[in-house]
């Protein structure tokens, strides 16, 4: 650990000291401003205190007598290098829970961005999809793209105050991104089904559920400002003057629709992979589109059909994972001349999946099913593959279009429930984690979109939830900045 030097801040990422400056003289997003240093110290103290409380709670939990399943779970944990034990699908609280528990205990509501005037908010259903970006280290502003009507794409910057609360300033210059101002992009994408971002190519990716004769992807690149221009945000919203649509036809279907796209990692030569109502497509970096699964699957050959979720194996962009209406978790190596698919049976149809590390895949679907699988043991045996871990309190009986995300760094899963609530779960034990702020979310219908994202000046990820026409922010910290002093 580097020693503290009075008047200086040590940046662990850059491995150097910076002289602490007064907040009104330091750059807006500087980590060495006096407010930023104070915030970071307080967050560190709060996080360590929350982790200590979680550790004490863990030590007071009554242990169950040793059973056959406990021994089996212990062997699994040792074999797979896991730091938790699963008992009949219910994870016991182990050390891996501490980070998740600590973060969850310290999360509070940090404001919202509303994409509709206050007098009209009750007229809107829950936001169908959105995307939040946190790359603007120049000004410290977040960026959000959302749609309320599944056709119009609206953008807003996300300014934050010293307490990381969403805070718009009425007298700020319109070009600063700190005044409440929504910018509509001149893009027509009917029945928007997903909004994603491919960072290596700086492309916003849009997909459409509108039935069409061809299957496609819409994309555009928001204009960027000069890196030295600190008066304007890094991304300029509402100023895109053109967009593109890539499309491909398929002889087996008259009507196409796309459920969503997954941006490829920087190491890949792909832009994204697309899940459709008749298989998977890939988009190359040269903006050409092709099928991954064979277009005419021979009889007796198993291949993905309608796909709702897909992801690349963590650390290996050649391995693709997919899930959809069939109760199967599909796996394929993109390096093969023609995709060959292996699969593991899941309890139900799959709505979401994520590669959380090189070996483990988290899957969520219908019939209240959420489970963690090990890739090294996936196969197509008749009896299927036993999950490493299940989440007994997950509730989603019949919705494909429902909010869900996981943050492996925190070890937390955020999942909208079919009763209009959002619940947090431990990725290590599968148990539900309680938090008053997030648990208080209530809606008449399921919340359709949520995601984790780290804002430019924040050390820990925040949870963003689309409730009605508003994008709500939940972050680790105190409700009021004075409470952190």
From TrEMBL:
Superkingdom classification of source: Eukaryota
InterPro entries: CUL4-DDB1_E3_ligase_receptor, WD40/YVTN_repeat-like_dom_sf, WD40_repeat_dom_sf
UniProt keyword Ligase, yes or no: no
GO cellular component: Cul4-RING E3 ubiquitin ligase complex
Record carries keyword Transport: no
Matches recorded under Gene3D superfamilies: YVTN repeat-like/Quinoprotein amine dehydrogenase
Protein name stated in the entry: Myocyte-specific enhancer factor 2d
């Amino acid at each position: 650990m580097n020693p503290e030097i009075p008047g200086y801040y040590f940046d662990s990422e850059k491995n150097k000291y910076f002289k602490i400056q007064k907040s009104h003289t330091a750059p807006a997003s500087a980590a060495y401003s006096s407010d930023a240093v104070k915030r970071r110290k307080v967050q560190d103290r709060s996080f360590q205190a929350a982790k200590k409380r979680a550790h004490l709670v863990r030590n007071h939990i009554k242990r169950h007598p040793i059973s056959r399943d406990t021994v089996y779970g212990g062997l699994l944990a040792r074999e797979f290098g896991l730091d938790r034990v699963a008992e009949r699908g219910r994870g016991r609280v182990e050390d891996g829970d501490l980070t998740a528990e600590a973060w969850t205990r310290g999360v509070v509501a940090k404001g919202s961005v509303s994409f509709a005037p206050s007098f009209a908010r009750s007229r809107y259903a829950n936001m169908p999809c959105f995307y939040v970006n946190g790359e603007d280290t120049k000004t410290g502003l977040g960026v959000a793209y959302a749609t309320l009507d599944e056709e119009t794409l609206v953008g807003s910057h996300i300014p934050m105050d010293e307490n990381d609360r969403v805070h718009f300033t009425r007298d700020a210059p319109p070009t600063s991104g700190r005044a409440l101002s929504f910018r509509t992009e001149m893009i027509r994408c009917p029945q928007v089904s997903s909004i994603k971002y491919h960072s290596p190519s700086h492309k916003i990716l849009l997909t459409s559920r509108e039935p069409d004769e061809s299957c496609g992807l819409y994309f555009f690149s928001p204009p960027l400002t000069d890196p030295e221009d600190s008066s304007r945000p890094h991304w300029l919203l509402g100023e895109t003057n053109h967009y593109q649509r890539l499309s491909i036809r398929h002889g087996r279907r008259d009507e196409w629709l796309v459920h969503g796209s997954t941006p490829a990692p920087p190491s890949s030569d792909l832009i994204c992979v697309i899940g459709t109502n008749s298989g998977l497509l890939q988009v190359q970096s040269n903006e050409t589109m092709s099928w991954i699964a064979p277009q005419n699957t021979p009889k007796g050959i198993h291949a993905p059909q309608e796909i709702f979720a897909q992801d690349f194996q963590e650390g290996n962009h050649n391995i693709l994972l997919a899930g959809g209406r069939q109760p199967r978790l599909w796996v394929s190596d993109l390096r093969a001349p023609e995709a060959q698919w292996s699969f593991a049976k899941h309890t139900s149809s799959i709505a979401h999946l994520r590669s959380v590390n090189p070996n483990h895949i988290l899957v969520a679907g219908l019939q209240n099913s959420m489970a963690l699988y090990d890739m090294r043991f996936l196969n197509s045996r008749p009896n299927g593959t036993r999950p490493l871990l299940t989440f007994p309190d997950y509730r989603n009986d019949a919705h494909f279009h429902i909010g869900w995300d996981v943050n492996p760094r925190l070890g937390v899963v955020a999942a909208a429930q079919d009763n209009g609530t959002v619940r947090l779960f431990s990725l290590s034990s599968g148990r539900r984690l309680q938090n008053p702020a997030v648990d208080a979310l209530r809606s008449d219908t399921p919340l359709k979109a949520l995601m984790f994202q780290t804002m430019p000046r924040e050390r820990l990820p925040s949870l963003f939830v689309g409730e009605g026409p508003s994008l709500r922010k939940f972050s680790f910290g105190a409700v009021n900045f004075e409470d952190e002093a």
